[in-house]
Give the backbone structure.
Amino acid sequence: MKPIQAIAVLAVMTLSQLALASSSTQTQVPRWLVGFWVQTVDEDGKPRTDTLEFKSDGAVVEHGPSCQRLPAGAIHIYHGNIYATFVIRKGPIAIVLVPSKDLKHLTWTSYATGNNAVFEPSKVASCVPAKS
């Protein structure tokens, strides 16, 4: 086997092992996070219309102002922060949600403006339509 072929085989084997390891790793979603979280603050001044639904299997679903289902994604928890990734028409996007110490708020900071949006658990076990 030529050295370049050996390197290629080694690279494929390594990537395969990494893919297998990452596919078998499941996010342990904390119980307090599961459910619907309603946007209560938007420092950009936009209407508060988003609801996030976190599922126990690591999925996250965004709901629009009329509770229509928007793109679904996946979450990963690292150092206590919640990393959510969504695949939209133009490609993948990611957001980082930081829980408050009392676990009653999730804060997302906009990369574009530096302003925060805050989400709180829904008082009902479903999406809450935005008020007009």
Q: What stands out?
A: The helical segments are 3-24. Residues 3-24 form the longest helix (22 residues). The CA atoms of residues 49 and 65 lie 5 Å apart. The two ends are 69 Å apart (CA to CA).
